[in-house]
Design goal:
About 45% of the residues lie in helices and about 15% in strands. The protein is α/β, with parallel strands linked by helices. It has a single domain, classed as Luciferase-like domain (TIM Barrel), CATH 3.20.20.30. It starts with about 20 loop residues before the first strand and ends in a 6-residue tail after the last helix. Pfam families: Bac_luciferase.
């Protein structure tokens, strides 16, 4: 009798690792104007009270993470902005389980100062504070504050040092670091965080992928189709393998879940039709230099169309638009390609987060359970008597 060849439970793909369950995060609307640059109605608000209610709703509807945005001055439809680290701490103190990721800019933060803030936030929140390192795309924010604006790859070299310094200060004593951008001399942080905060690296470029693989816990991608995200996962995890690390993958997606696909597609059509064209074009002009400044043209927004940029992190490209069943199937397909987390944006945050938790997320879990059962059956070895 021939015994079937034994394979590992999760068959290795080019993406190497498949999560048992995909996690969910949402964009915190701490910046005015909503998540689309359009005059369509957006029943959302950038204020504190609305965001506390939303955070509590999210953690009770299956969302594990929230990401606060970072802007320092008015730009492209975002007239008002709450600062990300302080707003993150406020949400942490108002919730019980939600992990909140604060976006920060190296160059506007000294890593030792942020490490101190992060350690305090860790203690106050019971280990729920994380950091998303954003290398920067908005030149005016730096120059208006009197800080130098570095070229694309230099910004990511600075971010690489920033990530290394944060982790060292949180985990080591008597830290010495001699880099091109940061110099730390015999520094010991007390108290250290109880749980080392997770580090996220955002981007799409070759430099971002390298940082994600070598230095961060998570790599965040702008919205991408299956091919686009798979290319990034392979490259990020190739880098991680060289230093014997594992990196998790997060993917941005703007979610339009409706009872019928026709309804969902009509919402997308209206969003784009009512785009604030001057704001979108201004944003496009500001950000596409980030991609074109890289030698291989792989930077964020390098190939984004006008329609893509109406959702300013390419969220439409992930195509999480349709019925709950269609969206759940697509999320499951991303998971099978190595995506660990979906970072969702919504038109009407409060009601749509609830709808997602009630209608979409249970279907995702059903598909995951079926996938797991199918995999177990496929790789079960017969017992020989």
């Amino acid at each position: 009798m021939t015994v079937p060849r034994v394979r590992c439970l999760h068959t290795p793909m080019t993406t190497e690792r498949i999560a048992d369950h995909v996690k969910f995060a949402y964009w915190v609307p701490n910046v005015s104007g909503g998540l689309v640059t359009s005059t369509i109605e957006q029943r959302t608000d950038w204020g504190y009270d609305y965001n506390v209610t939303l955070a509590r709703t999210a953690e009770n509807n299956g969302f594990e993470y929230a990401l606060t945005q970072v802007r320092y001055e008015a730009s492209y439809g975002a007239e008002y902005q709450h600062e990300s680290t302080s707003f993150s701490l406020a949400l942490l103190l108002a919730t019980e389980r939600l992990k909140v990721i604060a976006a920060v800019h190296p160059g506007l933060w000294q890593p030792g100062v942020l490490a101190k803030l992060g350690a305090t936030a860790d203690h106050l929140s019971g280990g729920r504070f994380s950091v998303n390192v954003v290398s920067g795309w908005f030149k005016d924010e730096f120059t208006h504050l009197g800080e130098p604006w570095l070229e694309h790859d230099e910004r990511y070299r600075r971010s690489a040092e920033f990530l290394q310094v944060l982790r060292k200060i949180w985990t080591e004593d008597d830290v010495d670091f001699r880099g091109d951008f940061y110099r730390i001399h015999d520094f010991t942080l007390k108290p250290k965080p109880i749980h080392t905060p997770e580090l996220f690296q955002g981007g799409n470029s070759t430099a971002a992928r390298r940082n994600g693989g070598l230095y961060s816990d998570w790599y965040f991608s702008n919205g991408k189709d299956f091919t686009g995200i798979t290319d990034q996962i392979v490259e990020v995890r190739d880098h991680a393998r060289t230093v014997d690390r594992e990196v998790s993958i997060g993917l941005n997606g703007f979610i339009i879940a409706r009872d019928t696909e026709v309804e969902a597609r009509e919402v997308l059509r209206e969003i784009v039709a009512k785009a604030n064209r001057p704001a979108v074009e201004g944003f496009r002009s500001a950000v596409q230099q980030a991609g074109s400044a890289t030698g291989d043209k792989k930077g964020m927004w390098a190939d984004s169309s006008f329609e893509d940029l109406v959702q300013y992190n390419d969220g439409f490209r992930t195509q999480l638009i349709g019925t709950p069943e269609q969206i759940a199937e697509r999320i499951a397909a991303y998971r099978r390609r190595g995506v660990d987390l979906i970072l969702g944006g919504f038109l009407h945050f409060q009601e749509e987060v609830e709808y997602f938790g009630a209608k979409v997320l249970p279907l995702v879990r059903e598909i995951e359970a079926a996938d797991s059962q199918e995999t177990l059956s496929e790789y079960r070895v017969p017992v020989l008597s």
